[in-house]
Amino acid sequence: MLLAIDIGNTNIVLGLYSGPDLVGDWRMRADAQMTADELALTMRGLLGEQASAVTGISALSTVPALLRELRVMLRRYYPRAPKVVVEPGVRTGVPLLVDNPREVGGDRLVNTLAAHHLHNTACVVVDFGTSTNVDAISARGEFLGGAFAPGIEISVDALAARAAALRKVELTRPRSVIGKNTVECLQSGILYGFAGQVDGLVRRFVKELSADGGGPVAVLATGGLAPLVIGESETITEHVPDLTLLGLRLAFERHTRTHS
């Protein structure tokens, strides 16, 4: 079985694949202070009896400190398993049409790979994570660039920290857009404000993509906070929660074919 490991700033997501099928997935809190041994112990605890069935690993980390520990863990605990760590310089088959390809994170690479695999059209991927990333992909599967915005939780934390009368609230839909109390006002601003921000960016992306050659544009949402916003978005056409894991599987398959 293939173990896909997606290490982000907030969460670590694991996916276990049997062939093309995702047979299990887990989410754990990311901690930049974790050691390789702690990472391995926590992962094996989540996988349980399936830990011994891992025969290959595809991984990425957007956290430099954890990338270092990830490499140590893979050498120490999976010395003989075929593995690929997606990072700048690793060939994924994705053309990077940006000024500095080495700046493109592994998560954006594999999301591009997965989106083009699912849709043979131009795509926009909205990844709701620590930051909200909006990326553009051509109909030929080329990564064209994107936009970053502060993530939902970062914005909520900053608001609570800087405004003395405001506090963190449950991230859920209020009774109405016009809030009747402080909690509902915050919830409305967060939920509908972020949905409006995403829709505004996506519409501009779609306009530019359409100007480059026309044709349909698929708009995919992924990331841990996507379920909060997609119901209020007017532009997102599909929710793919395992998009990054799928991209890791595809990257592993391409890497294996290239080096076989």
Coarse morphology: globular
Q: Helix share of residues?
A: 25-40%
Would you list the SSEs in sequence order as H and E? EEEHEHEHEEEHHEHEH
Query: Main sheet?
Result: 5 strands, mixed
Query: How many DSSP E strands?
Result: 10
Structural class call reads: alpha/beta
What fraction strand? Answer: 15-25%
Termini separation comes to 18 Å
Integer-rounded radius of gyration: 19 Å
Kindly report the spatial arrangement of strands forming the biggest sheet.
Answer: 3-2-1-4-5
Low-confidence stretches: none
The average pLDDT is 90
Query: What is the count of helical runs?
Result: 7
Structure description:
With 260 residues, the chain is an alpha/beta fold. Helix content is 39%, strand content 24%. The protein contains 7 helices and 10 strands. Strands 3-2-1-4-5 form a 5-stranded mixed beta sheet, with helices on both faces. A hairpin with a 3-residue loop joins strand 1 and strand 2. Helix 1 packs across helix 2 and helix 3 packs across helix 7. The chain is globular, with a radius of gyration of 19 Å. Homodimer.
